[in-house]
Amino acid sequence: MPRKQSYDAGSITVLEGLEAVRKRPGMYIGSTSRKGLNHLIYEIVDNSVDEHLAGYCDQIKVILEKDGSCTVIDNGRGIPVDMHEKGVPAERLVFTTLHAGGKFDNTAYKTSGGLHGVGSSVVNALSTYLDVEISIKGCVYHDRFERGVPVQELTDGLLPVIRRTRETGTRINFLPDPEIFEKTRFSAAEVESRLHETAYLNPSLTIQFEDLRGDEPKTCVFHEPEGIVGYIKDLNQNSEALHEPVLLKGESEGIQVEIAFQFVNEFRENVLGFCNNIYNAEGGTHLTGFKTTFTAVMNTYARQIGVLKDKDQNFTGSDIRNGMTAVISIKHPEPRFEGQTKTKLDNPDAARACSKVAGEQMVLFFDRNLDVLKTVLSCAEKAAKIRKSEEKAKTNLLTKPKYSFDSNGKLANCEKKDPSQCEIFIVEGDSAGGSAKTARDRNYQAILPIRGKILNVEKASIDKVLANAEIKTMINAFGCGFSEGYGNDFDISKLRYDKIVIMADADVDGAHISTLLLTLFYRFMPELIYEGHVYIAMPPLYKVMPKKGAEEYLYDDKALEKYRQKHKPGSFTLQRYKGLGEMDAEQLWETTLNPETRIMRRVEIEDARLASSVTEILMGSDVPPRKTFIYEHAADAQVDA
Questions:
Q1: Which of 107, 122, 173, 398 is deepest in the core (most CB within 10 A)?
Q2: How far apart are CA 202 and CA 186, in angstroms?
Q3: How many CB atoms lie within 10 A of CB 614?
Q4: Are 526 and 485 in contact (CB under 8 A)?
Q5: In Å, what is the CA distance from 558 to each residue of 178, 561, 591?
Q6: Is 552 in the active site?
């Protein structure tokens, strides 16, 4: 790889020490769930990708080891090992000091992802151990840490050399700390998907992935020379594409912009945004700039070629993007994000750059490809007609009385009106619903009973979804509308409850009901999930009543097994709850409703592309892919039980 700029101890800038990471890991990696666990890998990989963006690395290898650790290897320059002005090797600063890295003065890296220097140190702080080998200047240097503390003795103040080499690069092996994380088994499917995504965004990069944990090791290599055009093809592989993918490229204000899009014969919109290889789940200014310009240019074309007459209103943005799959990837020298985990880009210049590049390149493309232009406008026409025909139905749906109060088993609302203090429980069945209404704190807890299993929206047309009584009741209760493929009436600011809690029985039917509800939220109200408002209640499976001592609730079979190992047979009585309806109001309050004692799981989405694909497989009409998926992931399901 070409040598472009110096990268030594002087490139490392220290902003502050590594403090409180282990006490508040969620501030740095989002959560201590599986999502946060996988994020450790991404932080190390993103540092290697930054080396690629700087022009020094073209090979990355990620290995999920048999012992539960992860190894990341790259052929970049290697982390500097010479003495820093702070009096320690530069590498040790990178791994022990928050905000120490080569990403702050724009000399070592013009653009970068990761968490701006906190990535390596945070991974180190949250790992049982972290082992580093750095190949640089003809030698392999070694360092080792345990829970963030260096344990490798230095030689004359520098890292020891363990062997000679002609190669350059960095090898990092780390084991997540079980004291920090709820689960310490990485999700191979999510890691693999993220690595494949990274390969699409970097067409000259090759990423090898190995999972050595199963009976048979799994290896795959990701190299995508088509870049985001190949990504678009991947996203649309199960859809009827209406034209070949379109690629728009350019640079403005020092920001590199790449945009690829393709329209398919479906009523949906799928627009993904990336900045410096980091997926921005909540979008941001780069998506806003692209969408605004795309809408304006297409409306201009629609009038020029007579699709829209003088008396006609312009197409809405949702009309024009109906059927669109798009990937917007920018490289920004100084990105600014809302939130530490970079879910939303906030740079105004990113909007201007995307708008300028998209506007100029779209005109050049569509002036030469009128057939594609007419195809896109045809999709917009179809969407506009359907939107107008549904507006009356939507108006009727969304202008019903705001609060239907406990009549015919519907919403039993809470007394408070401040959404930040309110929560709503969706409960299946009259028996459980009646108990929940009695058990709740009516001051801030609302109960919405539903009858049976709701419609599977993955298999249903939009008119059937809107006509479903249970779905209409939920939309009215939440108050923020809904999103769908050809329009968007969803407004998260109107949400009436901070927490939406799915409260179903702890059995197969309850799991199915929860899955149907989550499918509804993901497809029609995804912001509820992305902004952390959706939870799943965890009612206990058992109540144990010992002859001596306090009663206990056990939430799964593993907990029961542990209890049995510590207590002699006959020393306790066991009660198994077959459903929420079997609990009296006091038990339901204590186990499932009381914020002081209840257990709830917040629903999170780590990988939007993977989540959409899995939802389509598991909840769609095509049976063979579903069977294949279940067989392939049976082992993981058992581990997560």
A1: 122
A2: 24
A3: 15
A4: no
A5: 18, 5, 18
A6: no
Least confident interval from 168-177, 226-235, 388-397, 409-418: 388-397
Tokens standing for residue 141: 């240097």
Domain count, the chain: 4
Catalytic residue check, 428: yes
Range of the domain at 425: 400-539+601-605
Q: Is 570 left (phi over 0), alpha (psi -120 to 50) or beta?
A: left
- Catalytic residue (one of 360, 509, 552, 590): 509
Strands 127-136 and 552-554 turn out to be: unpaired
User: pLDDT by residue (tens digit) across 149-181?
Assistant: 999 999 888 999 999 999 999 999 999 999 888
Q: What is the pTM of this model?
A: 0.71
Choose the final residue of a domain: 206, 222, 238.
222
Q: How far apart are CA 383 and CA 392, in angstroms?
A: 15
Q: What is the pLDDT of residues 14-70, one digit of tens each?
A: 444 455 677 777 677 767 888 889 989 999 999 999 999 889 999 999 999 999 999
* Catalytic pick among 251, 415, 491, 507: 507
Per residue in 355-376, pLDDT (tens digit) is 999 999 999 999 999 999 999 9
Is 394 buried (19+), middle (13-18) or exposed (0-12) by CB count in 10 A?
middle
User: Among the options 51, 190, 224, 505, which is catalytic?
Assistant: 505
Instruction: For residue 289, tell me if it sits in a domain.
Output: yes
- 252 and 272 part of one domain: yes
- Residues facing 324 on adjacent strands: 263
CA 559 to each of CA 200, 536, 572, 580: distance values in angstroms, whole numbers, following the listed order: 43, 19, 15, 19
164 and 240 assigned to the same domain: no
In a domain, 500, yes or no: yes
Token duo for residue 171:
């090898």
